[in-house]
Every structure is written in structure tokens, then in C-alpha cells.
Amino acid sequence: MARVSIEYENHVAHVTLTRGDKGNALDSEMIKAIVAAGQEVAASDARAVVLSGEGDNFCAGLDMSIFAAMGGGNVESWLNARDFGDANEPQEVALAWRRVPVPVIAALKGAVFGGGLQLALGADIRIAAPGTKLAIMEMKWGLVPDMGGMVLLPHLMRSDALRQMIYTARPVSAERGAEWGLVTEIHDDPLAAARALAEEIASKSPSAIRAAKRLIDLSERAERADALLAETAEQLALIGKPDQMEVVAANMQGRKPAFK
């Protein structure tokens, strides 16, 4: 069965986890399908992405079949392999969405646990329904976060809150998640809100949006001087070019811009 569906509409890629009867839990097929979906969307001309899960949950974390597989002899080679630049395959579940060159908005509901939370962290923006529960669940199984979370979490959360979530594996509410930086916004219908935001973003200059994501990603890990140089380089690549000139013309004429 397909684990992920992708639909394109109005320059927005709608990526849906389609294992709702299993809480969209991450088995090996789901992991491969999510990574493949990220690669497909990255290569497309989409201007924004909405990432969601069917059913009652966004993603309940690892499927028990993964734990069974860990008892075999291949887990060491699987985790040690750097098949995706600096990442292994499980890490790419989250990091693939940071590699997508346009903004990714995750619509969260129900359980967002373990690997599911780390998948959500790969998005630029996370909109959660009231009642959503988020957990760094790995300690429950005697493990540590290892699906890209330790690259992404320290940029979002203060250290004491992060440590508490990792050490205890206790779920927190969407409201607490918003206080701690895991949730961008709480909305009664997170999927509708994510779609509306994606369409708003898709209406902006495609080249400027892509440049902004590159610049944000670089600034989170670069030295000050490198970030300042990158600002200048990205701006010079935009000024006076067709997308920017169309934005100026549309603003002057009181109309929506039309990008080629």
C-alpha cells in the first residue's frame, strides 16, 4: 500500500501520510516513502508544501516492526550509512523537508510522537489543533532522539525544556508546545490554516521565497560574517530580476503579481 500521497494544486504540494489506520506510524516502507516524497517535491516547481497525516493523528512515531528489525544484524549499517549527504535514512525523514527549497507547513493533530515529532520539526512552520500531544518519545524505549531531532530541537527550544522532554518522554499539549517553540500556531482546523498559509506564500515571488529559505537555513549555522555575505549575495541575485520587477509593477498597479 502507498504510504504517502502527493497532490499539486495552485503551486502548492499537498503531502499526506496515508497510513491513518496505524496512526501514520513509521515502518520501513513509510520511512522510504517520506524521504522519496521530500525528494520529489524538492525537484518540483511547487512554491510551498503542506505536510499532514490522514486519520486522527499526524504521526504516532515508530511502528513496532522497526523495533523488531533492530534485533537483526543490519541496524548498525543502516544507521551508520550516510546515504543522504550528512544524514542516514531515518534522519532524512525530517531533514528532507529542510532540503526542500520552499517553505513546508505541517498540520498537526492527535499524536505527534517520537519520529513523528522529528518529522514535524523538518517543516518550517507547524500549526497544531487543540488537543494535539507532542512527545520526544525515544526514552520510553531506552533510546535517544536520532531522526534529525538533535540538529533541529536546540534551535527551537530552550535547553531545560528540551532536557525535560527527552529525559521523561512525557507528552506535552499543543499549548505547552507553543510556549516551548515546537508549535508555531494553534488552530481549530490546522489543515485548512496550513493550506491558506501555503497559498499565501505561493503568491509571493518564487525566487525571493527560495532565497529566504536558503538564507534562514544558512544563518542558523553560519558565522556572522558568512551570514552577512550571504544576505548581500541573495539580495543582489533578486534586485532588478523578473520576479522582483513583477512584484514592484503589481504593487504599483494594485493587482496580484503573475510569475512565469
What's the helix and strand layout?
Blueprint: E1 4-9, E2 12-17, H1 28-43, E3 48-53, H2 64-70, H3 75-80, H4 89-99, E4 104-108, E5 111-113, H5 115-121, E6 125-128, E7 133-135, H6 149-156, H7 159-168, E8 172-173, H8 174-180, E9 185-186, H9 190-202, H10 206-219, H11 224-238, H12 242-253
Parallel strand pairs: 2-3, 3-4, 4-6, 5-7, 6-9
Antiparallel strand pairs: 1-2, 7-8
Descriptive account of the structure:
Helix 4 packs parallel to helix 5 and helix 10 (206-219) packs antiparallel against helix 11. The protein has helices at residues 28-43, 64-70, 75-80, 89-99, 115-121, 149-156, 159-168, 174-180, 190-202, 206-219, 224-238, 242-253, and strands at residues 4-9, 12-17, 48-53, 104-108, 111-113, 125-128, 133-135, 172-173, 185-186. It has two domains: 4-202, 2-enoyl-CoA Hydratase, Chain A, domain 1, CATH 3.90.226; 206-253, Lyase 2-enoyl-coa Hydratase, Chain  A, domain 2 (Orthogonal Bundle). The strands form two sheets. A six-stranded mixed sheet has the order 1-2-3-4-6-9, sandwiched between helices. A three-stranded mixed sheet has the order 5-7-8. It contains twelve helices and nine strands. The two termini are 37 Å apart. Strand 1 (4-9) and strand 2 form a beta hairpin. The protein has 260 residues and is an alpha/beta fold. Pathway: Lipid metabolism; fatty acid beta-oxidation. Keywords: Fatty acid metabolism, Isomerase, Lipid metabolism. This is Crotonase/enoyl-CoA hydratase family protein.
